[in-house]
Design brief:
heterodimer, A: 204 residues, alpha+beta, 2 domains, 6-stranded mixed sheet, 36% helix, B: 301 residues, alpha/beta, Rossmann fold, 4-stranded parallel sheet, 8 strands, 46% helix, 11% strand
């Protein structure tokens, strides 16, 4: 005796449904995953009274800013050792740009630098003021060394400012609000730490 | 490459159990990724610390493929100094493969350096070659000394004083060439570079780069990109092209034939033996080359 089993072919509806559900699940998962991903770190937007050292400065302004930014550590160290702020001749004796009068100094406008010592209403801020640049379109510069106690190594409050008028006089008061009212703009550095944050969120 | 790294990591698993602390003679082991950092760190620490290059001296750090020996060295380090902004990305693969991602302190040399974009790049791509510059080098030397002082506070003042002495020596080197350049009229000098490595160095000498041949770091241009760059070189009246001392490339010959530029070679200090003097020697050679290029331009004007 033999018995026969009749197998009826599937019409494919179930298979199509399974595939459709799987595809929908994958799409839904992808959308949810993408929505939950953190945004790529972006630089903080600049305020009206700020300019970017990376993208907003002319070649000469950028060169002087880079030199000033680098000089801060040297000036801090000088102050730490001698508990006195180095005057321009002291910085020239250290070959320190942008103060040292060399080809860099000439090419970037032969800026005249002066040291401004703290006044009572400045909360101890010392500044280096650069003006009189000879390159058309060049800025005036202000390196502000923040409140620093004798014997401290670094104030970590140093800022660099530029002014559209290359002959902008040194300010009587160097508090930020006064500087902004006088037309100075704070230069925001794009540093290695910022790039590190962009590349890998600040860690290895 | 990733499978090779995993296999190598397993092979070195036994080594991972070794204490990665100071040597038997008490010396810390400080790792470095690039040639200039060997010079910087050596001049900061003197003989009180052992400086360990992560990769072999003749390895090209552009597009580098990590090797098993790199992981062995990473396992034994107490701290590593890195560029961290794009020139030693392979170091992070090695650190991870060596199982040191969570416990190897890193000193990011560029943390406080004000970065510049690569010349001529409309997308403002960050130039990672901060180590081909004396001003940026001094800044990195201070950052490294500060970082080492935090890890090894007993020697912090020693490191700081050495950093200052080294910085003064580097600035004196820069000043010597500044004196030489100050006697020359650089107004007719227009340069292009093969590799986008020299913006920091040119800026600190009051010069600029009109065009960079490589469209991206270590990438040769396509025929169309090259044709566009040649047009830019002609339009900007570029008269000097700086090729690479350690890269062989016929591109420079092609550009010279098309534009009549004079070709010189710079080094961005990425080959040869690791020595404390290497950064100063290579920078001096670069600045000699730059002086010759400017002098030849002045002579032809």
């Amino acid at each position: 005796m033999s018995s026969a089993t009749v197998v009826s072919p599937q019409d494919g509806r179930r298979e199509s449904a399974v595939v459709a559900i799987a595809v929908s699940a994958v799409v839904a998962f992808t959308i949810i995953y993408a929505a939950l991903l953190p945004d790529e770190p972006a630089p903080t937007p600049l305020l009206e009274w700020e300019v970017s050292a990376f993208s907003d400065l002319s070649a000469e302004d950028q060169a002087i800013h880079s030199a000033l930014h680098s000089a801060v550590g040297e000036i801090d160290w000088y102050y730490y050792r001698l508990t006195a702020w180095p005057d321009i001749p002291d910085l020239e004796a250290e070959y320190l740009p942008p103060f040292y009068k060399d080809a860099f100094w000439e090419t970037n406008g032969s800026i005249k630098w002066t040291l401004g010592l703290p006044l009572n209403n400045d909360q101890g801020a010392t500044y280096y003021h650069g003006a009189g640049g000879t390159v058309p379109g060049q800025s005036a510069y202000l390196l502000l060394m923040g409140h620093l106690h004798a014997g401290m190594l670094a104030s970590n409050q140093n800022t660099i400012w530029v002014h559209d008028d290359p002959n902008a006089p040194y300010p009587e008061i160097v508090r930020p609000d006064s500087l902004i009212r006088a037309g100075w703009k704070k230069v925001i550095v794009y540093s290695g730490a910022d790039e590190l944050e962009r590349l890998r969120g600040g860690g290895p | 490459m990733r499978i090779g790294m995993i296999v190598s990591a397993i092979l070195f698993a036994a080594l991972a159990g070794r204490a990665h602390t100071a040597d038997a003679d008490g010396k810390l082991k400080i790792g470095i990724t690039l040639h200039p950092y060997y010079s910087f760190v050596s001049n900061i620490v003197g003989d009180r610390v052992e400086v360990v290059p992560l990769i072999d001296s003749e390895s090209n750090p552009h597009g580098y493929s990590p090797q098993p020996d790199d992981m062995r060295r990473a396992i034994e380090m107490d701290v590593m100094v890195v560029n961290g902004i794009g020139h030693d990305e392979w170091a992070f693969e090695i650190i991870e493969a060596a199982g040191r991602k969570d416990d190897l302190p890193l000193i990011y040399a560029n943390n406080s350096v004000a970065l510049l974009p690569v010349s001529g790049d409309q997308e403002l791509v960050v130039n990672a070659h901060t180590f081909v510059s004396i001003t940026s080098a001094v800044q990195q030397v201070y950052e490294i000394a500060r970082g080492l002082g935090e890890i090894d506070p007993d020697n912090a003042l020693f490191y700081r004083e050495n950093a200052q002495a080294y910085g003064t020596r580097l600035r004196r080197l820069r000043a010597n060439y500044m004196t030489r350049f100050a006697e020359l009229d650089t107004s007719a000098f227009k340069s292009a570079t093969m590799h986008g490595a020299y913006d920091y160095m040119m800026q600190e000498f009051g010069l600029s780069v009109a065009a960079v041949i490589e469209p991206r770091h270590g990438v040769n241009p396509t025929a169309r990109q090259l044709a566009r760059t040649i047009d830019e070189i002609r339009a900007a009246n570029v008269n000097v092209l700086f090729a690479e001392a350690y890269f062989s490339s016929r591109l420079a010959d092609t550009i010279q034939e098309a534009t009549d530029v004079r070709v010189y070679s710079f080094s961005h200090i990425d080959a040869g033996p690791y020595t404390p003097e290497r950064f100063e020697e290579e920078m001096q050679a670069n600045l000699d080359t730059l002086a010759q290029a400017i002098e030849s331009t002045v002579a032809l004007e």
